Amino acid sequence: AIWNLGSINADMVYTMPHLPTAGETLAATELDQFLGGKGANMSVAAARAGSLAHHIGAVGPDGKWAVDRLTEYGVDTRHIAQIDVPTGHAIIAVDQQGENQIILYSGANQKIDQNSLKQALTQANAGDILVMQNETNLQVDAARMARGLGLKVCYAAAPFDEVAVQAVLPYLDFLILNQVEAAQLERSTGKTPDALGVSDVIMTLGARGARHIDGNTGVIHDIPALPVTAVDTTGAGDTFTGYILSGLDRGLPMVNAMAQANRAAALMVTRHGTADVIPDLKDVLDARF
Ligand code: ADP
């Protein structure tokens, strides 16, 4: 099973005549609300890929709809607490040209309670996988606890923060990053990805596919991206992460798990939207590229 200490956001997308400037009051012509947050996206991807995905997190009094939606998408939501802090959200203004402006508020995502984390993880089995991203509190506690319980620990270093990634690095089995994050990490540690002490480093390379770096042998394995016309790349990385972990959880060898994740992410970039449109395993296996 997959245990995800992860963010849950309401993505509020406002359609605007133009992006508001300082001091301006401007009416939106439309509002769409979507389920988002890297954590929620990864849980949905892992569940759609066929794994038991347990989400550990928190929402506010206004977050019931997000929990309901995660449940509907097959995620175990019993370890999502409802607390007295607003649900994390993104206020996204989009103009007629598709240019955007985003206000992020982490809210409940940064107020996850230590006891509920402990309660959740003690129900995990040795060999299960813990995944985290840099949008919640308790990352180091979770990594340490999971390691102690015999779980494998995966970190997606996004949004990138040098201090946050270095703090969890000693506990990791898997590290997943995109090219920009990989360059930032190399700059801040002075080490190449194979020298970080992490068994498996996975770099996503956008339209060039993905790379696996074996931390023990230094062997690099590249898989090319599938030929698709990308219309919306939001959530592609999260879909990739959810799928690769699910593949490993279902017993696939690394290279096969990566190939499946690469297919899922390719399909994802052909769709508009995030959590709501993450493909399921059948779609991924049936897809013709
Ligand atoms: P992020 O969105 O986190 O920055 P990437 O841009 O590296 O991550 O994309 C994640 C994965 O999505 C890639 O490894 C690849 O599998 C897939 N992907 C992204 N862009 C494309 C594309 N244009 N064509 C095919 N696959 C893509």
Explain what the structure shows.
The strands form 2 sheets. The protein has a 9-stranded mixed beta sheet, with helices on both faces. A 4-stranded mixed beta sheet has the order 3-2-6-7. It has one domain (2-7, 38-86, 109-286): Ribokinase (UDP-N-acetylmuramoyl-L-alanine:D-glutamate ligase, 3-Layer(aba) Sandwich), CATH 3.40.1190. The protein has helices at 38-48, 64-72, 114-121, 139-148, 162-168, 179-189, 236-249, 254-268, 281-286; strands at residues 2-5, 9-15, 30-36, 53-59, 76-82, 88-94, 100-105, 129-133, 152-156, 174-178, 200-204, 210-214, 220-223. It contains 9 helices and 13 strands. Helix 1 (38-48) packs across helix 7. A hairpin with a 5-residue loop joins strand 6 and strand 7 (100-105). By secondary structure, the chain is of the alpha/beta class. Helix content is 31%, strand content 26%.
In short:
The chain is an alpha/beta fold and 289 residues long. It has a single domain, classed as Ribokinase (UDP-N-acetylmuramoyl-L-alanine:D-glutamate ligase, 3-Layer(aba) Sandwich), CATH 3.40.1190.
Overall tally of structural domains: 1
In CATH terms, the superfamily is: Ribokinase
Describe the largest sheet. 9 strands, mixed
Provide the low-confidence segments as ranges. Answer: none
Please report the total strand number as a whole number. 13
Q: What is the rounded distance between the termini? A: 30 Å
Q: How does CATH name the architecture?
A: 3-Layer(aba) Sandwich
Bound molecules: adenosine-5'-diphosphate
What is the CATH first-level class name?
Alpha Beta
Strand portion, in percent? 25-35%
Strand order across the largest sheet: 5-4-1-8-9-10-11-12-13
Helix content: 25-40%
Radius of gyration, in angstroms, nearest whole number:
18 Å
Structural class: alpha/beta
By DSSP (H or I, 4+ residues per run), the number of helices equals 9
What is the mean predicted local confidence, pLDDT?
97
**What is the succession of H and E elements?**
EEEHEHEEEHEHEHEHEEEHHH
Shape: globular
Here the CATH topology equals UDP-N-acetylmuramoyl-L-alanine:D-glutamate ligase
InterPro entries: PfkB_dom, Ribo/fructo_kinase, Ribokinase, Ribokinase-like
Family: Belongs to the carbohydrate kinase PfkB family. Ribokinase subfamily.
Main location: cytoplasm
Function: Catalyzes the phosphorylation of ribose at O-5 in a reaction requiring ATP and magnesium. The resulting D-ribose-5-phosphate can then be used either for sythesis of nucleotides, histidine, and tryptophan, or as a component of the pentose phosphate pathway.
